[in-house]
Amino acid sequence: MRTLRRILASVATLFAAATLIFFLMRMIPGDPATAIAGEHADPAAIAAIRARWSLDRPLPVQYAAFLANLLRGNLGESIGSGRPVAHEILDRFGATAELAGSAM
Predict the structure, then answer these.
(1) Could you tell me the pTM of the whole model?
(2) What is the 8-class DSSP label of residue 55?
């Protein structure tokens, strides 16, 4: 029973953290599509970026897609490198674990 409670608490914590991250990212000022394309990009390019990243959909639809992708382990694509975010995290995991170990 104790283990089940811990598992449920962990799931609730992860859900709350994911929800907080999603909404905090949406509260950042400015248009993400314009930031990606550049301020002088033509409107068609900005619209294409909005469509590609589903920024043209209502917020509840974006949130549902975000949670569905998260459950599948799809963390998205890095804007900087174009690689899957999961690969970016794994590439840096060794160094992060080493730093955490040395901090302890």
Answers:
(1) 0.74
(2) T
